Amino acid sequence: MTHTDEPGHIMLSAEGVSAGYGARSRNVLHNVSVAIARGRTMGVVGESGSGKSTLARVLVGQLAPARGVVRLDGADVHRLPRRERFAARRRIQLVPQDPYSSLDPRMPVGRALAEAIDPRGRLRTGTHRDRIAELLESVALDASAARRLPHEFSGGQRQRIVIARALAAEPRVIIADEVTSSLDTSVQAEILELLLDLQRRLGLTYVFITHDLAVAQYMCTDLSVLYLGTLVEQGASDVLSRPGHPYTELLRDSRPDPSGRSLTEPAGGLTSEDVADPANPPSGCVFHPRCRYGPRTHGDRGRCAAEPPVLRDVAPHARRTACHYPIGPAAEDLASRNPAEDGRGE
After folding, report:
1. Percent share of the chain, pLDDT over 70
2. 205-209 and 41-45 strand pairing
3. What is the rounded distance in angstroms from the CA atom of residue 80 to the CA atom of residue 69?
4. Which of its termini does the chain have fewer beta carbons within 10 Å around, N or C?
């Protein structure tokens, strides 16, 4: 498998991916397509149940898609020969939300890193001593940490260890799944700065899963907004400040609870009571039962309830929105090009 390091080269992509859990289960991720260029950070935002972690599992290879293709450097990772598939999956590493649960409490840190360096070899920590020390130094930990057990570290230090373990595979892509949600604010800032520094030094590509919009805007160059397993908006990081989809606007104007499971004090008095099961989303636009604009602005909700909107270019800022009646700058651009497509002109 060849690798291309040119700027703008698509490092990791999902094309029309649908995925679910269990042999008879229905999909909770529906026809999602994303593409992440080398050296960039794509944020994936949305409420709990939106499909963020499912997408992460598909991209990292833990969950095979029911439909669609995942490509690394242009190669379909699920159709590679077995040996090449193993090597490809090492090039995509996951940093999970809870570092403690992902570390063996009985295994010294050095041994855990040795296992990550050579997962098919014999676990001889001494053989990899220099590399282990280098990995620990890269995340601002002393080499002596290799002799200690996970419970001897703080939460922030454990997250650094898990990042070092991911780096042991010499990845090209790191998928960070809510990596700062369980940390204090000051420690969050340290971990985010560490990730940015590693990206600059190693040329890493990130997929950043988060429900914290401030973190998303700080870390990400690109954003994908998921709702009930469906991609509703996609573009540069200004998507959150200049939304074209009503759901993105709701996220921006609302305050998530600490778990990200629901929206509290949402704008316009909206609640999350109408959120459907992602395995059984509403017909038409998946967001239409909660949309503040459909019945009041357009007078007729029929189209939104019956016809699924297509993700399309609607603004001059490299943005794509899946909405029949986009809002804000997206609506203004669409109306200027084709007034008949803007519901406000009806």
Report:
1. 80
2. parallel
3. 12
4. C
